[in-house]
Input
Amino acid sequence: MCSPERIKYLQHMSRRIRAEVLKMIHAAKSGHPGGSLSVADIITVLYFHEMRLDPNNPDWPERDRFILSKGHACPAWYACLAELGYFPKEELRTLRQINSILQGHPDKKKTPGVDMTTGSLGQGLSLAFGMAMASRIFGPDYRVYVILGDGEVQEGQVWEAAMACAKYRLDNLVAIVDRNSMQVDGRTEDVMPIEPLVEKWRAFGWAVRELDGHNIEEIVDALSWARTVKERPTVLVAHTIKGKGVSFMENVREWHAKAPNDEQLAAALRELGEC
Amino acid sequence: MGMSTREAFGRALVELGAKYPDLVVLQADGTRSTQTIHFAERYPERFINVGIAEQNLMAAAAGIASTGKRALVSTYGVFASMRACEQVRTFIAYPYLNVTIASSHAGVTPGNDGPTHQATEDIGIFRTIPGMTVVMPADEVATKPLLDQALALPGPVYIRLTRDAVPTLYGEDQKFFIGKAIERRPGEDLTIIAVGDMLYWAERAADELEGMGFTVRVLDMHTIKPIDREAVLAAAEETGAIVTVEDHNVINGLGSAVSDVVCDAYPVPVKRVGLPDTFAESGPYELLLEKYGMHVKHIVTAAKAALELKARLHRHVRRG
Output
């Protein structure tokens, strides 16, 4: 459990992460604000509360592993890593620019703290499966966290990996589905329905819990519940809002991949109380 | 007759499992087909069977290798190179991970299975991916040292194996080095550069050509990428004509890799023998070689054409 002060701190941190996301994408003049804002609270809780990490030693063998399967939401991840000191905050302004350590999608070789390259959808759960198996076979014991987009589960490979994780009873693996109900072409249920999503995961042998992916307390609780699950992998279906925190971006399809201009950035930062 | 290189691979892998205690072998069903069954029996804790799911296979191997361990995946060449191509490119090669992709059923060696199971584009696909090493041992003797070196390399390696038995060409004392061609016989009139199961047929063709009075250099180019540039250029300069021989589409395979070097640095005639940009069909291996222009007589014909081109070029140079 978590003290009210701790929750408050995490809420404050997630606002800062959101503000950084918008500044980064504004400076880069391209990127994906919608999906970055929908996962901001989840990544914040993972990095500032849940995961075992040592920012001074990014390759610490016992660290928990994180994979952002929906790699396009990396601005939220980069902001957390910079905040924790994996690299200087000034680097955030170089996102997507030539010679930057911050690629448009996560690159294991370029960015300290990035455990695995992602960006092509449908892959992260397989990568997490491999990492969790490596821990199982060789040790040390660490946990593997992977965030998937909801549209992403339309990729067949996700379900190949889901079967494999269940077969090997990987209770050291937690998948979190960012259920913002939108994808590039519109609503997931219009483009290619994924419901009933909870039942699908359950049928594949996973322990499943639904939560509000913007309620810090619920995220903290769900992750702590996941630690109690034994002999099965866990998936958290986190109901979120694409563009969460910026009124004019929320649930607006166009903000999937569009940079805010100067005025839009200023308005967004005012809403976040971070101007 | 020796054994298939997939069988030699299966045996070598068990031995190498002791040498590399951090090695995990991943298989997408078919442990008997690709011969990882021996490793699976000896090291069950380091063996993962993901079922018929090649995409998950490749990305899972990437996940394991991302933790600093060694991974080897095993499946058929067609599936490794096409069903899971992007997984190899983006999650194994781009992060430059230590994953060895061992594929069975190369070229038309799975004869009767037909084109669905004949990998005839895989060399081209993998040699186009940055950082990949592409290897094909010619026989059982070559298989173990090349596999050992593949596992030792820090980056990704594609190692291509035959389904059917191939003749044993090498003595036990032969040394092999990834990236270094082996001169099987010296010669001055022409060089035949062959890979994998085609080395045997290339040597039979060289025998015939020698019977006609030519001296023929034969190279085993077991590493297609990085290609042994020095050996190719020496062949170009010293023999002035080259024939390449491969059990693969003539496009983008060994012939193209050799031509890249020759065109770039020392242009001489290069004639390519391989599957002539078509799909093959079901049938016995040797009859497929006959029908699709890859048998001894076709290599001899290509050699004569290369020698004729070389002579014409020399006349042209003299006139000039």
The interface with chain A takes residues 22, 24, 45-46, 48, 50-51, 53, 55-56, 58-69, 71, 86-87, 90-91, 94-96 of chain B (CB under 8 Å). Chain B has two domains: 5-160, 182-319.
